[in-house]
## 1
Amino acid sequence: MKKRGVLFFLALVLMIISLQNVSALGISPAFREYNFEPGLEGKISYIVFGSEDVEYGVFVTGDLAPYVKLSKTIVRGGDSFDVDFKLPDVIETPGLNRIRVHVAEKIDPELAGGFIGTRIVVISQIDIYVPYPGRYLQVFLRGHDVNLGEPVRFELDINSEGKEDVTVTPLIEIFSETGEQKETLYFAEKEIASQEQLKLQKYLNTSSYNPGNYKAIAIVDYGVIAQSEVFFRIGELRVDIEGYTSKLYAGKLQKFDIGVASGWNDAIAGVYADVVLFNDTNDNLISFKTSTTGLIPWETRNITGYIDTAGFQPGVYNANITLFYFGKEEGRSTNKVVKVEIVEPPSSATWYIVGGIGLLIIIVITAIKIFKKNGSKKRKK
């Protein structure tokens, strides 16, 4: 056991040292991108961030690595090096072609230990975008959650990744959670040159909408349909009761949890509940308050109160849960009447039986382990 503890401690120390080294190694710039042109040439100057006492190897990977030259293959922290590339006249694979520039800690192959062969590596990417034959568009739509009456801003990016220019008239269709089409937002006709990106935006007026979940689909028809979809929510100052403690034991002081869910796109403060238990004749039997909490936009969490059921008989009771909360200095409440069952607590005999079974299981498991251990020692002898 002592030997295992020492090995675990040494492994932990080595891991911490490794993490410190990871944070100490870096390369800048981390990313560059180019649109492909036949015979395209370029030079990128890099700086290495790391220890001046450690040697790092520099190498390149990727399908375009044969077209790359390095000014240095060995560097130290603080050094710089250049990457020169000259692309061929034709690249057969359209779309993204990636060159990776690696800076890696050099490892002494004669070092012994459990970490043989491991090293710290950082990578910088050079992305080359090769146009597709003919016309080819990529569409990306983004939307944002809002509150009732606030406009939804949609951001639409259209990337022309083909060799031909394209003329399009984009549109965005809005659907409710049930799939009902609500309306269509139209853009003016736009021309996109090959290898260019078009950034558009459109606002949706939500004054006639109800709170809820919605979907927007951007559609761009250029002979082929390119589309992208995004989900968004329209919120209101509302906190819903998502769940509650539905079963209690008679004659005990115990927790009563209530799950609350924000339906608003802003912070809600001072959320708490008043809970009243009453019988079928509407006689109030007991009341209590829960803890108070705040909710970030769209958050779900529990609030807790305590109820003493001394004097209650087993049966089903009504509970009136009233939530109180505040948003932007406006107070609101939510009310829900639910059923709560009060039952007899388990008898002492039941707990003894459960505890006895648990103890028996522990004894059996321990005995099996001891038997296996002794059997293993005998075999070794």
## 2
Amino acid sequence: QLAEIEAEISEMGATAVVGIEPGRKRARNAESLVDAMHRVLDGTELTVTELAEAVQASGYVTTSPNFRTIVNQTLIKYPKLFKRVSRGIYTSK
């Protein structure tokens, strides 16, 4: 019965794989997010949103729907690399 159903599904142009959901493919970048952020912030002061957009514009690829949040967490996680200038504005050290 399963073979018949899979044959019908394939005739419609789709494939059926039982028990495996198609997941996101993780993007591969030439440099880490930390390195990309440090390079973009070098000599400038940006908000978290501006930094997230600038990092992506510089070629960093992400599939995250919450990339701004990841950038914000990275800024907080690496206080030796990034300096908070004022509320929501950061630069590199």
## 3
Amino acid sequence: MNDWRSDYVRMTTEGPQTIRSSLLYWGLCPLSFFYALLMRLRYSLYHAGMMASYRASVPVISVGNIVVGGTGKTPMVDFLVRYFSRQGTRCAVVSRGYGGSYRQEVARVIDGDGTDKVTAAECGDEPYLLARRNPEVPVYVARKRKLGVQAAERDGARLILLDDGFQHLAVQRDLDIVLLDAQRPFGNGCVLPAGTLREPRSALQRADLVVMTRSGAEACSPLRYNGPFLRSWHRPAAHLTTLGGEVVPQTDYSAKSCLAFAGIARPKEFFQAVRNFGFCNVEEVPLADHQKYDQDILNRLLRSCNNYDLLITTEKDAVKLSDVNFPIPCYQIGVEMAFEGISPLAALLEEVLAKHR
């Protein structure tokens, strides 16, 4: 089963390369064809006004993508939260809370006094991480994001950031920012389930700005998109942090070994960041994206503690481990967005704010 899963993942990102993955690809292509038709029909119904779409009284900015998997939406939303906070604009974040078990129609992650209203397991790791990093900014989770937007309006938000909102057409927005991985922007070029695209590539024309993440010097404009775009990359922190958020004093790690584990879509950059600290030995443990830390996973990590000096994980995983007592230190590495030039983004953000003043 793992071989089939491995072939499927590689097939959706790189195309069929074995007989087995070719069988998968051609078997799934008819489903992809009908899925693409369905997504085009859905957009047409919203565009024609035949399906209701909520218009908020304040600016709404969506950060999303057109592929499944990680492109760096959470660091981008975090960047925008900090940007607007510096501008003195009271903003809020609304997320679906992927993977969360909350039952309320709308849940605010952290109350105004800094008290947790829901746990990371209930609201999802990414909303909880955003709320913990920006405790002064309300973060809401709502399966019907219209209700989350309305809750943010009632609580006095002057601007709303819609996390992972590009396909969520039930809420209108003033700016659509789409993130693409510069290394592999469209996977194998097919929509689900034969590929990783959530909708056909032509949907990219709805974007007001494309941000190419994980960019190198060779990164260029995405195919079939002629609008403004930015090159960006994820910059890991130069220091380790405890699970409680305290910065660890810099030290010489050349005689220490560590177990690095990550429940994110693409962990290679994280593992390289760990190696850059100079450990004598790094054991890499990639886990499923949005990994739930049940007792089996925790026991696996706890058993490994006898063989290493410390554990290191991502911020996204760390928010789900605050109550775990590891027998050795467990640290996290933060990530932030860096841009080649921010002027196109800043101009669009100012245009949105000016329109609503």
